[in-house]
C-alpha cells in the first residue's frame, strides 16, 4: 500500500520534480504547497486567523444544514414527514449493545393483518429495546405481510426477521392459533436465545427505568431464587392499557405512539382490572408450554416473577398492585375507532374469546390516566 506520509516541506523547498523523484505525486489540480514562510507580519497573521474563523463558521453551518436535510429526506423516504419538529428528538438514545447482548433476547410475534403498524413496532423494539431477532408468525394475512412491505418501509434490516406464514390448512389444526404460535416459536428458536418475549403487534415494551437496558436486566434475574430455591423461568411484564384518546380515524403510519397517550386507570385509581394483566418474557429452556397468551407452564424448579424477582401469585397472568418501576408493556388495545373496527373484521386468534363493540365501550368508559411516555421515542 502506498505510503501517504507527507514530506516535511518546512526544512527544504521542494518543487514538483523533487516530489516526483521522492515518490510523492499529487493530482494536477492539487500541486504541492510551497514551504511556509517564517517572515509573516502580525497583520498577515490576523487576516489569516479572521479568514479561518469565517471559513469554520461556514463549514459548521453547512454541516448542520446537511444533517437537517438528511433527516428530512429520511422522513420523506419512510413516509413520516408529517411529524412536527420535535419528532427528531430521540429518548433515550438508540441502544448500542455489547456483542454478548445482541442475541440475548428475541421476540416471538403473532400477527394477523397488522401491516400498517408493524414498521413502527419493529423500529421501536430494534432501536429502543435493542432486540435484533424477530420471529414473525403471520396468521394468514393476504397478501402475506412481508410481501407488502419494502425494505424502506420496514425501517430495520430484513435479516433481523425470521418470517413464517401460516396457511389456512395449518390453522385448521390449531384450536388456539396464538398459543400454537408461541409454542412453535419457543420450540424452534428458543435454543438461540437466553430469553424470548411472547408478544402481539399491539404491545410495545418500555424500560421505564432509563438507567437499565433490558438485556443486562434479564441477565440479573437469572441469579435470583425464591424461598423454595426455585429460579426465575419467566418474567411477567405489567400491562398498561391504552384507549382511543378520542381518535376516530386511523393516524398516519408511524404515529401510533404519538396518537394514543391516554390509558385506563389502575384499580387503585378507580380503573378496571385490565392493567393487572401481564405478558411474559421467558427463559426457553425452563418452559413446557404456553397456558394462555399471558402465562406459561414451567418445568419444576422455576417460577414466574415480577420485575423485582417477586413470585407472582396464582393465576400467574396478573399482578396486583401493578409494578412498572423498571419495565412495562404498552397495550394498544383499541387504537382509533376505525382501527378497532378493522380489528374486529380480522377475527381473534383466541377462538373462545371473541371481542365486539362491548369491549370498545368497556375501554372507552373506564377511568383514564395519562401514559404518553412512548410518544417521546423516535424512530
Summary, kept brief:
Helix content is 30%, strand content 18%. With 379 residues, it is an alpha/beta fold.
Helix/strand class: alpha/beta
Please give the largest β-sheet: 9 strands, mixed
DSSP helix fraction: 25-40%
Secondary-structure element pattern, one letter each: HHHEHEHHEHHEEHEHEEEEEEHHE
Shape: globular
Distance between the termini: 41 Å
Mean pLDDT: 81
Strand content: 15-25%
Number of beta strands: 13
Q: Uncertain segments of ≥5 residues (pLDDT<50)?
A: 1-42, 67-93
By DSSP (H or I, 4+ residues per run), the number of helices equals: 12
Question: How large, in whole angstroms, is the Cα Rg?
Answer: 28 Å
List the helices and strands and how they pair.
Layout: H1 16-21, H2 42-77, H3 99-102, E1 105-111, H4 118-129, E2 134-138, H5 145-148, H6 151-154, E3 161-165, H7 168-172, H8 177-189, E4 195-200, E5 203-206, H9 214-221, E6 231-242, H10 256-259, E7 262-264, E8 278-282, E9 287-292, E10 295-298, E11 302-305, E12 328-332, H11 337-346, H12 357-365, E13 368-370
Parallel strand pairs: 1-2, 1-4, 2-3, 6-11, 6-12
Antiparallel strand pairs: 4-8, 5-12, 6-8, 7-13, 9-10
Describe it for me?
It is a single chain. It is globular, with a radius of gyration of 28 Å. The longest helix is centred in the first third of the chain and has 36 residues, at 42-77. The model is unreliable at 1-42 and 67-93 (pLDDT under 50). The protein has 379 residues and is an alpha/beta fold. It has 12 helices and 13 strands. The chain has helices spanning 16-21, 42-77, 99-102, 118-129, 145-148, 151-154, 168-172, 177-189, 214-221, 256-259, 337-346, 357-365; strands at 105-111, 134-138, 161-165, 195-200, 203-206, 231-242, 262-264, 278-282, 287-292, 295-298, 302-305, 328-332, 368-370. The strands form 3 sheets. Strands 1, 2, 3, 4, 5, 6, 8, 11 and 12 form a 9-stranded mixed β-sheet that branches. A two-stranded antiparallel ribbon has the order 7-13.
